[in-house]
């Protein structure tokens, strides 16, 4: 798609404006670095447009503070103080799920937490609570069988209104890839860790 020009125009009866304003389901997958980073870059664009943003992280610990979280929450504070941009909510699996149920089994607790997170997202989609969703590392609970892929695809494909959903993580299920409007595979060519260099401030966090 050079210079933003479409390769073909579908005969769907829609105007250019109607087609442009359709909601997007995007998947960032693959073994390379940058899947979440790209998603949060899109979230910053959405914030600038005044969209209501919901971020849901499915693997990262609730205790792990990442730079994107601090940035997006600062943007939310700016919105609340000045009206610029849009509101931002940030939730992480574990203590970050305010709706979480607890069990005594650690593995079951993680799986049930993921299911609780998805059920809450599905509820929010049904009432159009946010305009822009980031489901970070959501492919992993799908791959591990914690959440039913077909149910997720059905919910996302039939979500009401104009809600954009961005999903990140390796090994995206084929059914999700097939349903998405935008799929990007991050492929590693080189990485500092190949030379024994660990993650560093400002690059990995």
From TrEMBL:
Which keywords label this protein?
A: Transferase
Q: What is its EC number?
A: 2.5.1.17
Identify which top EC class this enzyme belongs to: transferase
Gene3D superfamilies assigned to the protein according to its UniProt record, in alphabetical order: P-loop containing nucleotide triphosphate hydrolases
Q: Which GO terms describe its molecular function?
A: ATP binding; corrinoid adenosyltransferase activity
Any one Gene Ontology BP term: cobalamin biosynthetic process
Name the domain of life this protein comes from: Bacteria
- Where is the region Disordered? 1-21
Q: What is this protein called?
A: Cob(I)yrinic acid a,c-diamide adenosyltransferase
